[in-house]
């Protein structure tokens, strides 16, 4: 079971073959363990992509038999199938449908060549009583609305939905048959504007986590008007494009959003300015325990001001930068590292005193050795730290921009040997 759980999805087939070919005893034990056979992948990329062969009808049938009554997870995603593969897949789909009573997580991806209603005619009485998670990768909802309507209406336990409309610049709202009130996790991969993003939150009144991409208003799609929304979300992941119009949408989104329960915020990815970040992180009642900033263009003074506001609640901090971004914006320099350092008993608390997990990638621009000393100061005896109201730093992942951090590397590797989790790398 430990070996199986470490397998990546695309390696499960070969991994199970290895288990079964070890010896007869292992084969008998594996065959009699239903959980091992409960994940099925039928995935094909573009016509130019060289990939392993798809599972045959007989193999899928065997896996379904061996999985017995265990909840099923499967993915059927096709950019292109050969005529022989297409015939095989069309035969396999009804086989999977016969086990819809034990579907738990599914991913479906259909291109223009493979319209689901033509090969997978869901009955009016379709029901998947324990289906929790659905990912849909499609060209449009409109063409196959009957298929998706029956699918989603038959999922009384659905709590997680990922929508990815390929080749569509803006994401329309999912259809009206969507089970909004029971949703806990929602991911909208395609870009959308502030009005649509807020409308989604207003409908999904029990949402726990939300992932979206904010873009400029589309001139050919008229979205709903902006309205204030109160949401119970705790985890928010937002990707933003660099055009000024996109940033205005981000400001509007946060201006009309009241999310007092928000504890984890991941923001950036493409590019964001310090003005946006100041508005977002200064929002009243924001008490984040986890903050992730990707490719942020922000001056040191503004960043320190915002981080100081959140300092007492932050336990996880991640600052990540692409290799192509200049380091003079968004860099972690001597001043910030000194403020994070615990200087001893009786001294003022360091910035983010309850920090337990720290990730810094390609953003450190400080004197060699200073960073390692900061980490060492947060790794003192637990009693000393506790008496001074400071948490023990448990995990550190760091990627230095260049190799001129030999003292930092030596000090960090010593602490990793003493129990600090994580890694240190160099990006050359």
Automatic annotation (TrEMBL):
<protein>
    <submittedName>
        <fullName>Predicted protein</fullName>
    </submittedName>
</protein>
<dbReference type="InterPro" id="IPR032675">
    <property type="entry name" value="LRR_dom_sf"/>
</dbReference>
């Amino acid at each position: 079971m430990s070996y199986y759980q470490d397998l990546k999805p695309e390696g499960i087939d070969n991994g199970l073959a290895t288990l079964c070919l070890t010896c007869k005893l292992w084969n008998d034990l594996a065959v009699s363990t239903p959980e091992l056979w409960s994940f099925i992948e039928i995935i094909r990329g573009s016509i130019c992509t060289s990939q392993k062969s798809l599972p045959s009808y007989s193999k899928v049938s065997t896996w379904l038999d061996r999985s017995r009554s265990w909840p099923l997870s499967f993915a059927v995603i096709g950019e292109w199938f050969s005529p022989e593969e297409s015939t095989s897949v069309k035969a396999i789909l009804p086989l999977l449908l016969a086990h819809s009573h034990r579907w738990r997580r599914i991913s479906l991806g259909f291109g223009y060549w493979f319209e689901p209603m033509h090969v997978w005619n869901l009955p009016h009485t379709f029901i998947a009583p324990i289906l929790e998670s659905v990912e849909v990768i499609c060209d449009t909802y409109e063409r196959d609305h009957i298929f998706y309507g029956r699918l989603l209406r038959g999922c009384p336990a659905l709590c997680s939905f990922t929508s990815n409309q390929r080749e569509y610049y803006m994401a329309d709202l999912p259809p009206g048959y969507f089970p909004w009130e029971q949703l806990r996790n929602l991911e909208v991969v395609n870009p959308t504007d502030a009005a649509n993003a807020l409308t989604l939150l207003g409908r999904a009144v029990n949402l726990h986590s939300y992932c979206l991409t904010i873009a400029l208003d589309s001139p050919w799609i008229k979205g709903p008007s902006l309205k204030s929304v109160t949401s119970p979300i705790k985890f928010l992941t937002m990707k933003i494009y660099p055009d000024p119009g996109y940033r205005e949408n981000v400001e509007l989104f946060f201006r009309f959003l009241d999310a007092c329960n928000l504890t984890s915020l991941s923001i950036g990815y493409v590019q964001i300015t310090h003005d946006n970040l100041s508005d977002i992180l200064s929002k009243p009642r924001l008490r984040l325990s986890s903050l992730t900033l990707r490719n942020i263009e922000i001056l040191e003074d503004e960043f320190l001001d915002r981080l100081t506001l959140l300092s007492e609640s932050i336990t996880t901090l991640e600052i990540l930068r692409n290799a192509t971004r200049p380091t003079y914006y968004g860099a972690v320099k001597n001043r910030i590292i000194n403020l994070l350092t615990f200087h001893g008993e009786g001294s003022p608390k360091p910035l983010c005193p309850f920090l337990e997990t720290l990730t810094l990638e390609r953003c450190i621009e400080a004197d060699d050795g200073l960073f390692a000393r900061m980490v060492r100061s947060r790794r003192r005896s637990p009693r000393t730290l506790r008496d001074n109201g400071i948490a023990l730093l448990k995990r550190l992942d760091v990627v230095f921009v260049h190799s001129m951090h030999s003292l930092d590397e030596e000090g960090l590797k010593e602490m990793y040997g003493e129990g600090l989790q994580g890694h240190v790398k160099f990006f050359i």
